[in-house]
Amino acid sequence: MKVLFLFLFFSPFFQVVFAIIDGFRANSLDTLSLVSVIPRFPDGYTNVCGGVLIAPSIAMTAAHCVFLNNEFAITAKVTLGDVSLSEEDDGEQEFRSHAMAISKKFGSGIPEANDDVAIVFLPKRTNVCESPVSSQIARLPTTVSINFKETPKIPSNFQLENSICWIAGWGKTENKTASHSDSVLQMMVKLVVRRIGNKKYLMAKGIVGSSRACMGDSGSPVYCFIDGRRTLIGTVAHIGSFVKMSQHDPSNHLQFCRDFEYAFISDWRESSARIVEILENYGELYQLEEGQTLCFGSGNF
């Protein structure tokens, strides 16, 4: 069994979280595994991020959402079935977590999109997969790191670049300090794999109007129809450059976000290795297979 050491580091670039500009009200069937993640840090700072349920009591989000300035959030409010941040929605399930983990690779040198993932352990199991329209665990593709009998094989770059895909989340829709969208928004995206230097990155571009990812969208799930089924492909990591974002005037974040067509995605085909390592260390890896069988096993919808 691999042993994971949580790596603590300081990086001012990860104090920015990313929202959907010019999105539309999300289709509930497209967001059944979406969660809102609202962490609170020791100094009282809070932010809004997206996340996704990947096992009965495990949510995944962006590492920089729950780890800032060399410390973890002291608590994170995770809500499954959340539509409006300011109201209690029918069927929503709210949890308060004090247990979070990131991979040591997140702090090794220049942060990479595929390392920008975190696990939030929920204090109890969620109620999921009771009907085709109730909250669900995300359908996870098989990767080189983990194999699922019930779910699709590793999607190829060609398959992803030619699939119907979307992002859903909350976040800034106005140039104000805390003007996150109260309702979850969605945008359709085209995925592309681009080489930057000697590395390849999965990126997403809005394809309807001027839709963009921006502050508030970090950790939000990216889904595609793979073999006709809604499948998790990754989570939003960042847009443009963290250095440029940290230096940009907060009063004009929307213009900054509009200047970048593409968002960097933590590609599940790569980031799953980090997730497997974390869960192995905590003895919770079994939950991934259990969740896929619970929601997508033989006889299920």
From TrEMBL:
Q: Which GO terms describe its molecular function?
A: serine-type endopeptidase activity
Gene Ontology annotations of biological process type: proteolysis
Question: Which InterPro entries does this UniProt record tie to the protein?
Answer: Peptidase_S1_PA, Peptidase_S1_PA_chymotrypsin, Peptidase_S1A, Serine_Proteases_S1, Trypsin_dom, TRYPSIN_HIS
Q: Name one Pfam family in it.
A: Trypsin
**The Peptidase S1 domain, residue ranges:** 20-274
Protease keyword on record: yes
Q: Which SUPFAM superfamilies does the entry link to?
A: Trypsin-like serine proteases
Q: Please state the span of the N-terminal signal peptide per the UniProt entry.
A: 1-19
Q: Which UniProt keywords apply?
A: Hydrolase, Protease, Serine protease, Signal
| Family matches, as SMART domains | Tryp_SPc
* PANTHER family in alphabetical order: PEPTIDASE S1 DOMAIN-CONTAINING PROTEIN, TRYPSIN-RELATED
- Write the protein's name: Peptidase S1 domain-containing protein
Species? Caenorhabditis briggsae
